Amino acid sequence: MHLLDKALFYVFAGVAVISAVLVVTRRNAVHSAIFLITALLATAGIFLQLQAEFLFIVQVILYAGGIMVLFVFVIMLVNLDVALRQVQFNRQKWVAGIVVLALAAQLGLVIWTAGRIPGAGPGPNAAASPAPAPQLQPNAEMVARSLFGPYVLPLEIASVLLLVAMIGAVVMAKRKV
């Protein structure tokens, strides 16, 4: 792994972790949704760096695009003033802090002992070099071959069913308006 690859991974991972923390700590639901989109896009960047193009596209189009639009619509339609006036559960901060400290201690223990296990990391017992990874076939091409090869009929049936459901939803919505 090159230095640029490591740097990009740490940038994407850092953005994802910081955004995930901001999702659960922001009081404004719209800000939380924006940070969730940022975390999903950072995860998509990690997928792209790992040469998982199909997962990258699915992450961007399906999650960061479709699902987050749905979340934002729900946030806009729900009456948030009522939720803000309700009693908040702030008594659990100490329990959350203890759980965070316990998990941090476990993570620290794992990192500390990983260097002491033979072959697990740098040190006198570490292996000389890792075995070369086998050449992988293109990810998106393999998915396309399986979808449009033996599974083309079920794929087309599913697409027709989704089209019928979408047309039915539009017709039912037009009747109620």
Which structural traits does this protein have?
single chain, 177 residues, mainly alpha, Four Helix Bundle (Hemerythrin (Met), subunit A), 3 domains, 7 helices, 75% helix, 0% strand, flat
Write the layout of secondary structure elements.
Elements: H1 3-25, H2 29-49, H3 53-77, H4 80-85, H5 93-114, H6 139-148, H7 152-176
Helix pairs in contact: 1-2, 2-3
Précis, in short:
This protein is an all-alpha fold. It is 75% helix and 0% strand.
Poorly predicted ranges: none
Mean pLDDT: 80
Which CATH architecture of the largest domain is right?
Up-down Bundle
Query: What distance lies between the first and last C-alpha atoms, to the nearest angstrom?
Result: 58 Å
> Which CATH first-tier class of the largest domain would you pick?
Mainly Alpha
Shape: flat
Helical content (DSSP H or I, runs of 4+): over 70%
Number of helices: 7
Strand/helix succession: HHHHHHH
Gyration radius over CA: 23 Å
Characterize the largest beta sheet: strand count, sense, and whether it forms a barrel: none
CATH superfamily of the largest domain: NADH-ubiquinone/plastoquinone oxidoreductase chain 6, subunit NuoJ
